[in-house]
Amino acid sequence: MKRIIVTCLLLWPLLATAELGGPSLESPGNDVYDTESLRRGAKLYVDRCLGCHSLKHMRYRRLQKDLGFSEAEIKQLFPTLERVVGSMTTAMDSKDAERWFGVAAPDLSERARALGTDWLYTYLRTFYVDDERPFGVNNWVFKDVAMPHVFWDLQGEQRAVIKKIDEMPVIVRLEQAKPGKLSAKEFDLAVTDLVNFLDYVAEPAQLERRSLGKWVLLFLLIFGFVSYKLKKEYWKDIH
Ligand code: HEC
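Above: the input record for the complex with heme C. Below: its predicted structure, written as tokens.
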């Protein structure tokens, strides 16, 4: 009996969130080895996120090297940077941020690992109009979030379709209220690039492992060939 009660208590938060009707998370299907996608994601991040969210663990030089940005491209990406040194901090003072948003915008270096790419992908696509919130938007995944909808021009506006279930208003889906500059499909792809970039930032060494993997395979192939030849050579005398 005790066990049943404990199980119920442990499951309660899960049941409670299910009841509030958060969306099921969707997968971005991103690929951290797709350098073009990472480059697009990096640009989008600098344009739309870096003003508020730093990436303290990401160094400019590393970004340049891993994503193959030329010196001119990196200067274009960060025009105010005098020398390409240090890590991606934000221009915004965290005190200002707290004054404006009530909370500081967290550093996103490692959040992709903690939150997961599905969560990020769904979160960034589920802002909807809510006149009761300070920025006029709410989010389906992160209720009452203190972040504005930074993609409103690209995505357009979404409205929540609400149904009453047991007297409780529950969001059943979001629908497009005003179109944005991008079609839904193009917007999803842009968010995939961005999430891909955050996935890479959370663990830049992922890329090295892959390129190391190639050398290991090549080594094994050559080594295999040489041993095969050697074996033939030895057996020739024995037969
Ligand atoms: C105008 C400032 C601002 C901009 C620009 C901005 N954010 Fe935020 N963001 C915030 C604030 C403030 C929070 C904290 C919200 C809260 O806790 O309620 C937040 C929260 C988040 C969270 C949740 C983090 C967590 O640890 O729970 C993620 C993920 C996020 N932002 C991603 C992004 C991405 C990606 C972009 C660029 C597309 C972006 N944000 C642009 C202010 C901003």
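Notes for the reader.
Residues 48-49, 51-53, 101, 103, 105-106, 108, 111, 120, 123-124, 145-148, 150, 194 surround heme C (CB under 6 Å).
The mean pLDDT is 88.
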